[in-house]
Amino acid sequence: MKKVKVQLDPPKKLLLGFMGVILLGAVLLTLPIATEDGKGLSFLNALFTATSATCVTGLVVVDTGDTFSMFGELVILSLIQVGGLGFMTFATFFFFLLGKRISLKERLLLMESLNNVSIAGIVKLVKRVLIFTAVIEMLGGIILSIRFSFDMPMGRAIYYGFFHAISNFNNAGFDLMGEYRSLTPYVDDPVVVLTVCTLITLGGLGFIVMNELYQYRETHRLSVHTKVVLLTTFIFTISATILIFIFEYGNVKTLGPLTDFGKVLGSLFHAVTPRTAGSNTLPIGDLTQSTLFLTIFLMFIGAGPGSTAGGIKITTFAVLIAAVWSQIKGNSDVVLFKKRIVIETILKALTVTLIGLFLVIIITMLLSITEKGNNFIMYLFEATSAFGTVGMSMGLTPELSPIGRVLIIFTMFAGRLGPLTIAFAIAKKRKPDAFHYTKGKIMIG
Q: What phi and psi, each to the nearest 5 degrees, are found at residue 385?
């Protein structure tokens, strides 16, 4: 009998690859050695934690620092690193070590994994991604280790410093501080706040952007993609910092007791972290309604494509805003930085946004049915945080019912791979239509 060989396209391979990593992580976290009490986690809680780590989300049903042993924490850290950079990037790293040649199929997978538009130079890009990651995480880890050494023994400070550097560069938001505190003890500490904000921002720019910035000294040019990412990142960070400063200035449970400088640091951190990082220096449940709504908006948008971040991506948002502005002005073309944006890109942006919006709405509705005794904004916040792979929570995550945990697991997975995979699928070369229907007119607005 002839063997039937199933051919999987790159998006399906990425999907199965992430599922495999998550299941392996879940199994490891159920082992007795993974927890402090030696009992291990239930499979559902282990699956939730592994999904959250691999999808670089940060939502937790048990506190990481209080629950897991060093073995369990290192499993989580490994899942964060693999999930943030992509398992294909790590596979390529091992291929380099073994001297193995990267095949065409593997190059195609790398192109999909890094959201690159071309296969040309993809191996060189992967090498630079690994170097960028190692250098940034090393520098961040050293700075945080030195700062933490003033509060704890040196060995623990180094461990904490590098754990939080890796977690935040990969926009995961896992922490070891215990009692679900995240980084709230360092709300007005400039070293911790500015270092973590830098790590989050660099991780959220995307490796394509970082590579172009690195090559700028030679090329002296930046693509329209990089310009859009840099400009929108700057605008979002500054405007969100100002708004949060205003919204929380008099809130005695958040910025109120801090000095003006501390208020600026607290506002800056919470302007940066919703871009899918998840760490927090202010108690989320005590934020004003206006700040919570702004945070939901920022979580849904996310950061740059091809990065460690989630959400619909800031380039998607920028393209939609540019399209709306062109309609208002009566222009036939959508233009960004004197470059015309093709209709296919606009339709992709619209598709990813609507699918993300529908997913958040459906999960919010289901959570309002399965979880009782909470207000609506908690469900919306939780669903958006999971979709955007952010990891911020108003305190609902540990209280989720088994069904609620399954819903959030699905949302985290869909948020990390769903819009991305859909974008890959619709980006493929289409076959020309055999015929065209006559035009129909629909009234809009």
A: -60, -40
* Number of Cβ atoms within 10 Å of the Cβ of 387: 30
pTM for this predicted structure: 0.88
Kindly report the backbone phi and psi dihedral angles of residue 335, in degrees, each rounded to the nearest multiple of 5, phi listed first.
-125, 135
Write the CB contacts of 139 (distance below 8 Å, at least 6 apart in sequence).
none
| Three state DSSP letters for 168-188 | HHCCCCCCCCCCCCCCHHHCC
Nearest to 246 by CA among 288, 300, 201: 288
What are the C-alpha distances in Å from 1 to residues 4, 5, 23?
9, 12, 33
**Domain range annotation of the chain:** 10-427
Which contacts of 242-247 are long-range, i.e. CB under 8 A and separated by 24 or more positions? 242/267, 243/271, 243/290, 243/291, 243/294, 244/270, 244/271, 244/291, 244/294, 247/287, 247/288, 247/290, 247/291, 247/294
Measured between alpha carbons, how far is 55 from 82 in angstroms, rounded to an integer?
9
Residue 341's DSSP bridge partners are 334
d(CA 203, CA 308): 6
CB 415 within 8 A of CB 310: yes
The DSSP element (H or E) to which 217 belongs, if any, is helix 207-219
Helix (H) or strand (E) holding 160: helix 154-169
Calpha distance 80→52 (Å, rounded): 9
Length of the chain: 445
Residue 56 · residue 83 · CB < 8 Å: yes
State how far the Cα of 82 lies from the Cα of 88, in Å rounded to an integer: 9
Question: Per-10-residue mean pLDDT for the chain, 445 residues long?
Answer: 52 75 94 90 94 90 92 93 71 55 59 57 74 91 96 94 93 88 92 95 86 86 91 95 95 93 95 88 93 95 81 91 92 88 89 91 94 86 93 90 94 78 52 72 72
- Compute the radius of gyration of the chain from its Cα atoms: 22
CA 443 and chain centroid, separation:
38
